[in-house]
Specification:
Number of strands: 11
Structural class: mainly beta
Helix content: under 10%
Number of helices: 0
Length: 125
């Protein structure tokens, strides 16, 4: 059974950077969807970055495009999210999520069956 554990959250001033990591235990398949989501208090969970496992490309939400970069190391079973030029509106709990079945790689939370516990990011103005 796949388990996900996020780390790397913390507090940073606006304009700063953080690197989140999602450690995967268990066996994941290539060609599946791994996405990063975030949820701020009182707001809906939103997708920010997504990759195909074993793939080279990532796609991003417009709100983070050009500032965030998703990467993966299949040998280490880790998925990272580099966040630069952070803004106060980036403050949220960040989650990585994995979709076990084959299918489209989306930003729709119900499409994902495995979630990490989240890591909190606070950006102060």
């Amino acid at each position: 059974q796949v388990q996900l554990v996020e780390s790397g959250g913390g507090s940073v001033q606006a304009g700063g950077s953080l690197r989140l990591s999602c450690a995967v235990s268990g066996s994941i398949n290539l060609g599946r969807c791994m996405s990063w989501f975030r949820q701020a208090p009182g707001k809906e969970r939103e997708g920010v970055a997504r990759v195909w496992t074993g793939g080279k490309w990532a796609t991003y939400a417009n709100s983070v495009k050009g500032r965030f970069a998703a990467s993966q190391d299949m040998a280490k079973n880790t998925f990272d999210l580099q966040m630069n030029s952070l803004k106060s509106e980036d403050s949220a709990t960040y989650y990585c999520a994995y979709r076990t079945p084959e299918g489209p790689c989306t930003f729709d939370p119900p499409d994902f069956d495995t979630w990490g516990q989240g890591t909190e990011v606070t950006v102060s103005a």
